[in-house]
Amino acid sequence: MLLDVSGLTGLPGGPYHFTLAAGECVVISGASGIGKSLLLRMVADLDENHGDVSLHGVSRASMPAPHWRRQVIYNPAEPGWWAEQVRPHMRPAEAALALLPRLGLQEKLLDAPVSQLSTGERQRMALIRAVIREPRVLLLDEPSSALDEASTLRMEALLAQLTTTGMGLVVVTHNEAQARRIAHRRYVMTSGCLAEIIV
Ligand SMILES: Nc1ncnc2c1ncn2[C@@H]1O[C@H](COP(=O)(O)OP(=O)(O)OP(=O)(O)O)[C@@H](O)[C@H]1O
């Protein structure tokens, strides 16, 4: 199993259990405020949490936190940026250049200040920023919340291609049509547990 989450507890409650295979896209949905973002943050080890989380059978507890976070990347709906321009965030830059047109973004945006990008442009740039780091698992929190339909479909096509490389995706979305399009398996989060639903 690529990712195995067992008995995970923390601020949103729990214990939560779920699995993710290599090349799989798992969608998590649930009521607003139930704790989906906090769950993803716990998996990425960004907030205090307890439980067993492993990657390819290797326990998260056995590796330094930065090593875990390079392999399991959390991408929030409204990502943070640490430099003024877009380009310094893009390493390696060549990989970013190749992905820009896939998401309908112009190359000149790399040299724009982050603050001048539209919300949807920032959201797509942040996805590229995460993808080019080649994580084994990408945790995506409402990745198309700021996107129009055409951009959403382009983003979904990229996600599908990523799964063919073996990357595992966990996607939180409120968009039911999107969940049906992209999910290999689905969970619904209710207070205290994740229930797998048949797709
Ligand atoms: N750092 C925090 N400390 C305390 N409570 C928090 C913290 N962050 C979030 N919460 C609360 O925890 C609950 C779950 O938040 P979370 O953002 O995970 O919900 P969500 O399921 O992702 O919601 P949505 O679908 O609206 O994005 C909310 O009631 C939120 O106010």
UniProtKB/TrEMBL annotation:
InterPro entries: AAA+_ATPase, ABC_transporter-like_ATP-bd, P-loop_NTPase. The keyword Metal-binding does not apply. Residues 3-199 form the ABC transporter domain. GO terms for molecular function: ATP binding; ATP hydrolysis activity. It comes from Acidocella aminolytica 101 = DSM 11237. Keywords: ATP-binding, Nucleotide-binding. It holds the Pfam family ABC_tran. Coiled coil: none annotated. This is ABC transporter.
